[in-house]
Amino acid sequence: MKAEVFLPEDYRPAEDEPFMNERQLEYFRRKLLTWKNELLDESRSTVAVLQGDTRNIPDVADRASEATDRALELRTRDRQRKLIAKIDSALRRIDEGEYGYCEETGEPISLKRLDARPIATLSLEAQERHERREKVHRDD
After folding, report:
1. How many CA atoms lie within 13 A of 136 on its CB side?
2. I want to staple 93 with a disulfide (CB 3.0 to 4.6 A). Which of 20, 40, 42, 98 is the partner?
3. Can you tell me the distance from the alpha carbon of 140 to that of 64, in angstroms, rounded to the nearest whole number?
4. 100: Cβ–Cβ under 8 A, 6 or more apart, which residues?
5. CB atoms within 10 A of CB 111
6. How far apart are the C-alpha atoms of 17 and 20, rounded to whole Å?
7. For residue 120, which of 102, 133, 105 has the smallest C-alpha distance?
């Protein structure tokens, strides 16, 4: 088992240190795990609310509004479920030593981009190219 990496509370990855060193990897691992745990907590609370909220609403408009709210909540949870899968994939890339590198070019993804979107798999330039190609094909 690997020794735990010391990470100061105020640590932020910096461009002047070696890319994806142990401290940076630990920083992103903790960031991803915190995000995942927050999503799982929200999901558990939603399930509890939906299971406990089976009241009979006599007004048709209120019932429709409640059904719409439930559907919206379930769509949100489905998006979060997909996000958790992406977080798990990022954690796996950390373990495999592939985290932080663009899947398309193999170049490092900027630390600013990873800090803003820790599940990123493409560099900003590769993501822009991907979105342009997607837009072109969508317009057909």
Report:
1. 6
2. 98
3. 37
4. 19, 20, 24, 28, 108, 109, 114
5. 19
6. 9
7. 102
- Residues contacting residue 60 through CB under 8 Å, at least 6 positions apart: none
| Length reported for the chain | 140
Question: Which DSSP category does 122 fall into?
Answer: S
CB 5 within 8 Å of CB 26: yes
Distance in Å from the first CA to the final CA of the chain: 52
pLDDT at 27: 97
pLDDT tens, residue by residue, 20-42: 999 999 999 999 999 999 999 98
Beta bridge partners, 101, equal 108
Q: pLDDT of 9-22, one tens digit each? A: 889 999 999 999 99
Using DSSP, state whether 91 is helix, strand or coil.
Answer: helix
